[in-house]
């Protein structure tokens, strides 16, 4: 079995790509592969925004990423530079900048590109959505 890393660069509102990525991630673990991490980069950082409130009759993509993380125990890494440029901050950035509330919450964690590249050394395959 192979170890995978996923790179998410599309907006969560591109629902067909979001569904494809989440389906792929779920199938990996169902087939016995390892999902080491999912790295959210560029517009993909919006997947980590805990403050997005979708109507209950719409697909809840944020909650699905959390389910995938819980079942696969993979790391949900959010590019810190790309996220901050888009107004997405974790607890430490919120404190540093005086923002009242962080909008990136666990199990999503902020990481730099260097950490992502280090994690890639533990994987055989990288798949981008």
UniProtKB/TrEMBL annotation:
UniProt GO cellular component terms: sulfurtransferase complex
Alphabetized InterPro entries for the sequence: DsrEFH-like (IPR027396), Sulphur_relay_DsrE/F-like (IPR003787), Sulphur_relay_TusD/DsrE (IPR017463)
GO biological process: tRNA wobble position uridine thiolation
Record carries keyword Cytoplasm: yes
Keyword Ribosomal protein part of the UniProt annotation: no
Entry keyword set: Cytoplasm, Transferase
Main subcellular location: cytoplasm
NCBIfam families: PRK00207.1, sulf_tusD_dsrE
PANTHER family from the UniProt entry: PROTEIN YCHN, SULFURTRANSFERASE TUSD
Protein name: Sulfurtransferase complex subunit TusD
Organism in which the protein naturally occurs: Salinimonas iocasae
């Amino acid at each position: 079995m192979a170890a995978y890393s996923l790179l998410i660069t599309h907006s969560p509102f591109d629902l067909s790509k979001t569904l494809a990525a989440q389906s792929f991630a779920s199938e990996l673990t169902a087939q016995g592969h390892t999902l080491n991490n999912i790295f959210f980069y560029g517009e993909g950082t919006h997947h980590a925004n805990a403050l997005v409130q979708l109507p209950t009759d719409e697909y809840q993509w944020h909650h699905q990423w959390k389910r995938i993380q819980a079942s696969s125990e993979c790391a949900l890494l959010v590019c810190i530079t790309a996220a901050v440029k888009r107004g997405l901050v974790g607890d430490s950035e919120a404190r540093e900048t005086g923002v009242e509330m962080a909008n990136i919450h666990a199990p999503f964690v902020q990481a730099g590109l260097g950490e992502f590249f280090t994690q890639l050394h533990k994987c055989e395959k990288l798949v981008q959505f």
